[in-house]
């Protein structure tokens, strides 16, 4: 098709056409009113520090209370995201400070998996979702020269992200108002962090967590992620390919000893596994005064084992005389219509909702 008026002569002089266009534009302005321009939502300004440097231009703003910043750290290779959910009234009262809930995603997941648990968008607390890597296991890796590069995930979270958040947001920066929770791999991370850093976290919840490294099945789950055996203990969520029901992968293959060293109990070769095992009596003893909640179903090849692990931890806490909650929802029928008792957000979303409700009372008690 030829362009309009090409090869033809206009019947109107240029000046007349220009004047007519101006008149038409003025008329449109009278009837339509001024053109509206949507302003970008305003979010808090973050200052670099504690070893974290923001990546310019990489901030994702979904709303004034839901945004993601991207940072670099010498503790980790590459760039890493931190998603934040603020209470709706955060900006309304500049003098008010808030408790903080740290949510740790599962293996093969990302910070955006938090969207699958709507209760994390709380009006009673700030929620922070730091990147935990596809298979970071919330640990400072034994091997730092693998295809994954620098991998000091625990140092990144505890020594950098936590104080960075406290410095940049209006938090109540004490253990009584700081909770850590996570699913699957993140369930391990949450309980491990609460044990190793009981001065940082006063509340912890593990959902379908791999929380007993004394179990071969749990050690096997870690090895599967190191070897990128897709689907093993997969925290299926927004990071999954549509309709597959499987994780998209755990990143590059690394040595099976990369994170915690040798998993084999020969001549104490597995000493790191034993040292960080959340179910070990010495580690459970560190939870004195910490508010502990465990959630698990018992359906499928994964939560069949997480139920055993949760029961082992609960039994160990009972022997120590430490109060704790175990919510074993079995096949899920009593928890929610979306829950089949398996390893998925159909169960974890209502479990998170239950935990956030529990935290509102717990935070009030510790005020």
Amino-to-carboxy terminus distance: 73 Å
Count of individual helical segments: 8
Helix vs. strand class: alpha/beta
Helical content stands at 25-40%
* Low-confidence runs of at least 5 consecutive residues: 1-38, 241-245
Radius of gyration: 25 Å
The count of DSSP E runs of length 2 or more, i.e. the number of strands, is 10
3D architecture notes:
With 367 residues, the chain is of the alpha/beta class. The chain is built from eight helices and ten strands. It has helices at 14-32, 153-168, 185-196, 216-226, 271-276, 281-284, 300-320, 345-365, and strands spanning 53-54, 60-63, 66-72, 79-85, 100-104, 126-130, 178-183, 203-207, 291-297, 325-330. Strands 1, 2, 3, 4, 5, 6, 7, 8, 9 and 10 form a ten-stranded mixed sheet that branches. Helix 3 links the parallel strand 7 and strand 8 (203-207). The longest helix has 21 residues, at 300-320. Mean pLDDT is 88; it is low at 1-38 and 241-245.
Topology:
Blueprint: H1 14-32, E1 53-54, E2 60-63, E3 66-72, E4 79-85, E5 100-104, E6 126-130, H2 153-168, E7 178-183, H3 185-196, E8 203-207, H4 216-226, H5 271-276, H6 281-284, E9 291-297, H7 300-320, E10 325-330, H8 345-365
Parallel strand pairs: 5-6, 5-7, 7-8, 8-9, 9-10
Antiparallel strand pairs: 1-3, 2-3, 3-4, 4-6
